[in-house]
Request: fold
Amino acid sequence: MPCGGNRFVLYQSDDGIKWQDGIIVSGDTKYADGYSSNCIINQYNDDIPNELMVEYSINYEGKVTNEYVFFIKPEPEK
Reply:
């Protein structure tokens, strides 16, 4: 990934105080990524593990953007 501040980085914390190293999801040398929004999926269904849905935009060619969505699922218990 390119160096610099124009990146979408995902961080994780179990307590909101100590944070793990970030994972670079996308990066661009010209334009900063736009925004992200997140929500928990399946939180009202006890039979299915919660998932985190992340939607974010990537700017390119000025104000033109693409929208991306991905899901983070818990690892199965061993």
